[in-house]
Amino acid sequence: MTDRPVALVTGASSGIGAGIVEVLAGAGYGVHGVARRADRLSELSGRTGCAVHTCDLTDGAAIDALAQLVSPDVLICNAGRGAGFEGTARTAIADLRQTIDTNVLATLDLIRCTLPGMIARGRGHIVTIGSVAALYPSPSSIYGGSKAAIRLLTENLRLELRGTGIRVTDIRPGRVSSEFYDVAVANRVQAKAAKATGIRQLSPKDVGNAVLFAVRAPVHVNVSCIEIQPVEQTYGGTSFDSVGG
User: Fold this and answer.
1) Which class in CATH covers the domain with range 6-228?
2) Is 181 annotated in the active site?
C-alpha cells in the first residue's frame, strides 16, 4: 500500500461508521465517509478531516458514480439497516426490501464496483461489518438472515479472490451503543426497552479499533473474522429449571 492508504467507509454519518472513520483518520488513513445525511457528514469531516460523499447506496447509479471518484485500498462496508423486530409476519414489505437492499445488495454492488481496481493493483482489503446475529438466534429473522448472507459472502469471497493479494475480513459485533434500535424498532417504547440492556455496551470506536487491527496486519496475514462483544454479553448454553427432589 501507499504511505497514506485510502479507506472508504459507508454508513459513516453516525454510530459504528463514524467510529471507524475517527479511528482510521487518527491512524493516518485518507478516509472517505459515505452516508445519506449531509449535515452529519459535514460535522464528521470537520472533526476528522475526512472527505465526504452524500450517497444512497441502494441507488446503483450512485454507487457507480462513487466508484469513479474513489478507488479505495480499504473498503469498509458498514451501512446497514435493521427491520423485523416486531416479527416477520408484521413487517411491512417496504421495510423488508429496504433492509435486504441496504445490507446485502448494496454491499455486493459496492464490492463489485471496487474490486476491479484492487485486482489491477494486486492489493486491497474488503471489510464488512456483520453481526453476531449472523451466528446466533436473533429476535429478527430478517436482520439476522441479512447478516448471515454477509458472513457467507465474505467466506466465499476469500475463496474467489485467492491469488489476487486482496484480503477479506468480516467484523461481527455484539451490542454497540448506537442509534440502531431507534431506527430498527418502530415502536418507541419497544425501542427504548431494546436499548436498555443494563450492561456496558461496545462503543463505535471499539469496533473501529477491531477494523484497524485487521487492516494493519502484515500483508501476508488475512484476519478472516473478528467476533467482538461486551464482556457481559454472551450466547448459547443450556439451562434447566430446578426440580424438587
Assistant:
1) alpha beta
2) no
